[in-house]
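R.M. (postdoc): so does anyone remember the format we settled on? I'll just put the structure tokens first.
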């Protein structure tokens, strides 16, 4: 089975392309249909919601200071265009990137040629993956190049865009161009889970089929057995909970349900754990117990070690598409998770007392803005009544001749009245 598409492919239908290459069965476990599985729905909702809810910061490399909201961070955190909020844009981009492997947004730039905003992104327009395809062309100078073809369904003509004008989310890619959905690796797990649910359904819907009807003193042909069963079922139609009526020629025995099988099906968390693993979320979020760790520890690990799998490709894409080369040498983007991952105040206070962090750096760790009006907030603090080291040094310099209990004069002798 082929897992990689040829670079000659220009199909607009990603699902059909996967089917033709045998990557997914005809029933399909990728795309919107995968949301019929409650574990997949929960996992996708958790990841998309977490990525969408964390603000995106633009940070200066020289001093790690956070830039105030400008056009770019406003687009990424507040409103991407006149009819779509930034939250639902990021949520939709994440959902499509996970379900189909790719998600796309067109960058609309300032058309002016001069001025500080020339060429800057001023709007973002989301497109479903079904309306976008990746095509290739041969450039006599640079060789083989790819571009995006957009096919809007709102009456507009199709148009092509270069990669620099398209934000493209993808979290697993073998060539850096086309993404692959993690759901394509979960066909067996989702199928096993569905089989378990179907088995439970058959147990509870079996009704009279879960029984044996024996006719005493007779050897029945196939046609006779079929007719007796049909007659018996017809006679018992009506209240399914009513009594079973037989005569002396029949012996009715209900089949016992093996409850151990039902318990095994009901308690089988393996498929759920596999879905959580492939989607990079803690299993406890899908109601699977995680022993020996608290929820706080699991959540901290999820934000620090699992979510970066999604954060880093997004940040990299923003830096490549929303900043020019000069800006990339000065700024970087990052997700602001400080309110969830900040260290305890006691630990930060200890770092301040040992001259490792300044008060404003502590405020930054806690997700608060720096106090720019107080210059001492940017200096290391001494443990001597928490005054700054600068003030302590000045005090010792001005009073370097004072020793012992003397208050004036040299060596503590001058100024004595005795």
């Amino acid at each position: 089975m082929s897992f990689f598409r040829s670079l000659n492919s220009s199909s607009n239908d990603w699902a059909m392309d996967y089917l033709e290459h045998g990557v997914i069965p005809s029933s399909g476990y990728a795309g919107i249909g995968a949301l019929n599985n409650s574990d997949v729905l929960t996992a996708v909702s958790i990841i998309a919601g977490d990525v969408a809810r964390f603000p995106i910061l633009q940070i200066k490399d020289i001093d790690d200071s956070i830039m105030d909201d400008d056009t770019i961070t406003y687009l990424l955190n507040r409103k991407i265009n006149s009819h779509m909020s930034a939250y639902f844009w990021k949520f939709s981009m994440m959902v499509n990137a996970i379900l189909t492997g790719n998600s796309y947004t067109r960058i609309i730039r300032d058309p002016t040629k001069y001025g500080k905003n020339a060429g800057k992104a001023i709007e973002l327009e989301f497109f479903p993956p079904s309306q976008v395809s990746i095509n290739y062309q041969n450039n006599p100078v640079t060789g083989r190049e790819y571009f995006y073809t957009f096919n809007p369904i709102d009456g507009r003509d199709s148009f092509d865009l270069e990669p620099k004008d398209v934000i493209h989310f993808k979290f697993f890619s073998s060539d850096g161009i086309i993404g692959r959905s993690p759901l394509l690796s979960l066909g067996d797990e989702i199928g096993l889970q569905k089989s378990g649910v179907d088995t439970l359904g058959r147990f509870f819907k079996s009704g009279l089929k879960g029984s044996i009807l024996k006719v005493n003193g007779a050897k029945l042909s196939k046609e006779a057995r079929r007719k007796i069963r049909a007659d018996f079922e017809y006679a018992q139609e009506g209240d399914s909970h009513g009594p079973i009526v037989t005569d002396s020629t029949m012996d009715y025995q209900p089949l016992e349900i093996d409850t151990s099988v039902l318990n095994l099906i009901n308690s089988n968390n393996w498929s759920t754990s596999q879905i959580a693993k492939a989607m990079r979320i803690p299993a406890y979020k899908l109601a699977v117990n995680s022993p020996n760790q608290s929820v706080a520890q699991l959540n901290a690990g999820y934000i620090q070690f699992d979510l970066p799998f999604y954060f880093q490709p997004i940040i990299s894409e923003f830096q490549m598409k929303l900043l020019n080369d000069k800006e990339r040498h000065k700024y970087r983007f990052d997700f602001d998770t400080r309110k969830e991952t900040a260290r305890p105040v006691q630990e930060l206070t200890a770092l301040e007392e040992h001259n490792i962090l300044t008060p404003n750096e502590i405020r930054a760790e806690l997700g608060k803005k720096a106090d720019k009006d107080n210059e001492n907030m940017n200096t290391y603090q001494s443990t001597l009544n928490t005054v700054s080291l600068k003030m302590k040094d000045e005090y010792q310099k001005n009073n370097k001749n004072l020793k012992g209990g003397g208050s004036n004069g040299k060596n503590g002798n001058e100024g004595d009245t005795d």
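R.M.: ...and that's the designed sequence above, right after the tokens. Also worth knowing: Residues 1-203+263-341 form one domain. Residues 1-12, 20-29 have pLDDT under 50 and may be disordered.
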